[in-house]
Amino acid sequence: MAAFWLILAMLALGMLFQHLRTFPDNAPEVLNKVVLYVCLPAAVLRYAPRLELGPDVLAVAAVPWALLGATVVLVGLTTRLLRLRRDEHAVLLLCVALGNTSFLGYPLVRALLGEDALPYAVIYDQFGAFLILSTFGLYVLARYGGDAEPTWRDIARRIVTFPPFLAMVFGLTLMPVDPPEWIAGGLQRLADALLPLVVLAIGLGLKLKLPRDELKPLAAGLGLKLVLMPSLALLMVSWLPLDAVAHDTVVLESAMPPMITAAALAISHRLAPGLASALVGYGILFSLATLPAWAWLLTQV
Hints:
By secondary structure, the chain is mainly α. It contains 14 helices and no strands. It has helices at residues 2-20, 27-47, 55-82, 86-97, 105-113, 118-145, 152-160, 163-173, 181-192, 194-205, 215-237, 244-254, 260-268, 273-300. Helix 2 runs antiparallel to helix 10 and helix 5 packs antiparallel against helix 6 (118-145). The longest helix has 28 residues, at 55-82. It is globular.
């Protein structure tokens, strides 16, 4: 629970600094870049070498892709039922399919399940969420945001220049499982900075205002992301060759709130910006209750 008190403290501090205008407007972007280029690669390098490639790793990576298929179907049904606009449909596709599986996922999985779960969280994020963002995410933005459809070269360039993905490749091939203490200690300290920096950045940029006409898609999106997706993941993993740690990690990663990057891309393409911002903001706040609930439920099944 110490991690959740830290989250609440840093979130409140970030919102206070936002209100007082203590930091420049681009502070959240700067902090996120520090996380992306320093803390996340350090976390990947610390935990990826512990993975032994096998059927369990493939099973972990397969779940987010299976949930993507369910997302397309369920968001399509939701759009018809609630008569959502085209841009609202696009935002739900992005924010339900893509969770905050790295920035929040790594430290929260570690806090709730322990260090042994981190390698599986890395696989779920890098071979699941990140690749989905780089393929399906770009397609949604191109189709609904008016951009030219990305080429395979564009997608490949995005993948091979993404710092955590490069760290993953290095960690799985060249990084020793037990590096020298000064390397392991340095990577651990950088990885430990991930949670406070991310949550501070979230607090600095958190927007909770929402037009009333978007309350229905907000409720639908959060219900799908925080409740239905992890329920489906829990059903899927019962049929997969996973040990208890991998099983719980997959479910918890699927229960993470909407991805900040996905919402930011939707906003930059003028796709229901109020809805995208609210899905991230309220998703993070509600997940402070739903994630411990899922963690407790996993101890009961």
